[in-house]
């Protein structure tokens, strides 16, 4: 049974370094240091895994007692960790459920490339990655949810929210892709459009913010927060000015934005922590609760604890890309969150707070294995029949 021990050791080894990776990428560590740790961790995971796998395949046996006592202790710890991670994985799979107040109406998929006559990826590297098997970088998934509540005012019953995240304007995915996404988003006739960070990575793509995002339509307003990749833009004021020109309002200025709808009020705020500090504290009356619906926009799902302190009803987040590369059966293994992959995509409920985490529309590198980009429509309603937002 040596092979089983070594499998658990490898799971524990990979799990430990994925834990380190996730926590580093959930922090505000500068990009250069973060990229260096990324390469180091990749080497630390891949090299030992290939070595052990090769030994097992060629020798059919690899005894732990061949190693020194400290190394044997290290392997034993990894074996226990691997067993624990395996049990946790099975537990999560068996207990995975949608929150009681969330109805997943349906998922519709479309290949954006087939809707456009010209290539939508630019550059040899992007096209090489785009040709990889199972890469879904241009296969958009429209996700439709209902968030239900029994005490919702009638003015807000049927409210439609379009959630977009992680556009990553790099130039590797051409603007025509995003224009097609926006055309599909506009078909939802949204009341609100929310952008939750990582909008533009390259200075040369700044003008896309106006030319592309200005096309988005929303009856009651378009709001945004920035993410860690937006810090690559040297002049933050230019970035925010272009978003304002595209019709978006910053939700992350440390204040509430009250939007009257009929006799009701929707209250919107933003959080760009840990990369921007403006939303560290909200204005003093933030806990008075004199709004009918309180919504937080944040780039990272790690801010759920902060959100609950201010008693938000809904939280919209991104950042994790759904893991971006999902292994068959296993699923995602890395996500830039201190919770690992636990909240890397989907909807979650914490007391009275519901959080939706988007897989995002793009990424720094155009690769998404078994993890399609996401355009989300959330319909807020009192009914529980799960059909109001299906149109």
Structural overview:
- With 391 residues, the protein is an alpha/beta fold.
- Helices cover 31% and strands 21% of the residues.
- It contains eight helices and 15 strands.
- The strands form three sheets. The chain has a seven-stranded mixed beta sheet.
- The longest helix is centred in the first third of the chain and has 29 residues.
- The protein is globular.
CATH class of the largest domain: Alpha Beta
Distance between termini?
55 Å
Percent range of helical residues: 25-40%
Quaternary state reads single chain
What is the fold's blueprint, element by element?
Blueprint lengths: L1 H24 L5 H29 L9 H27 L6 E10 L12 H7 L8 E10 L10 E6 L10 H12 L5 E5 L11 H6 L8 E4 L10 H10 L2 E3 L6 E5 L2 E8 L21 E6 L5 H6 L4 E4 L8 E2 L3 E2 L13 E5 L2 E5 L16 E8 L10
Parallel strand pairs: 2-15, 3-4, 4-5, 5-6, 8-9, 9-10, 10-14
Antiparallel strand pairs: 1-2, 3-15, 7-8, 11-12, 13-14
């Amino acid at each position: 049974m040596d092979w089983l021990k070594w499998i658990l050791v490898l799971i524990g080894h990979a799990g430990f370094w994925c834990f380190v990776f996730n926590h580093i990428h959930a922090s505000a560590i500068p990009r250069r240091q973060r990229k260096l740790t990324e390469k180091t961790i990749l080497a630390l995971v891949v090299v030992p895994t290939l070595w052990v796998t090769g030994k097992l395949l060629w020798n059919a046996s690899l005894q732990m007692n061949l190693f020194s006592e400290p190394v044997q202790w290290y392997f034993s710890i990894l074996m226990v960790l691997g067993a624990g991670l395996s049990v946790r994985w099975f537990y999560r799979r068996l207990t995975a459920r949608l929150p009681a107040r969330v109805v997943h109406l349906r998922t519709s998929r479309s290949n954006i490339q087939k809707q456009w006559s010209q290539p939508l990826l630019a550059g040899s590297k992007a096209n090489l990655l785009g040709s990889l098997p199972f890469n879904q970088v241009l296969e958009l998934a429209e996700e439709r949810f209902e968030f239900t509540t029994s005490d919702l005012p009638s003015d807000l019953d049927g409210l439609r929210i379009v959630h977009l995240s992680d556009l990553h304007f790099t130039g590797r995915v051409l603007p025509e892709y995003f224009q097609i996404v926006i055309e599909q988003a506009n078909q939802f006739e949204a009341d609100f459009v929310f952008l939750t960070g990582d909008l533009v990575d390259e200075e040369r793509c700044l003008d896309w913010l106006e030319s592309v995002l200005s096309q988005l339509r929303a009856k009651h307003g378009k709001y945004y927060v920035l993410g860690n990749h937006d810090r690559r833009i040297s002049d933050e004021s230019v970035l925010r000015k272009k978003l304002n020109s595209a019709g978006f309002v910053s939700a992350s200025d440390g204040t509430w934005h009250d939007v009257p709808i009929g006799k009701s009020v929707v209250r919107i705020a933003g959080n760009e922590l840990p990369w921007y500090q403006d939303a560290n504290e909200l204005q003093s009356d933030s806990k008075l609760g004199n709004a009918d619906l309180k919504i937080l926009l944040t780039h990272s799902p790690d801010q759920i604890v902060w959100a609950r302190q201010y008693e938000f009803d809904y939280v919209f987040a991104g950042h994790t890309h759904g893991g971006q590369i999902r292994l068959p059966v296993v699923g995602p293994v890395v996500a830039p969150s201190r919770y690992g992959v636990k909240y890397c995509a989907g909807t979650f409920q914490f007391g009275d707070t519901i959080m939706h985490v988007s897989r995002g529309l793009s990424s720094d590198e155009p690769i998404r294995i078994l993890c399609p980009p996401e355009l989300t429509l959330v319909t807020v309603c009192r009914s529980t029949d799960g059909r109001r937002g299906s149109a």
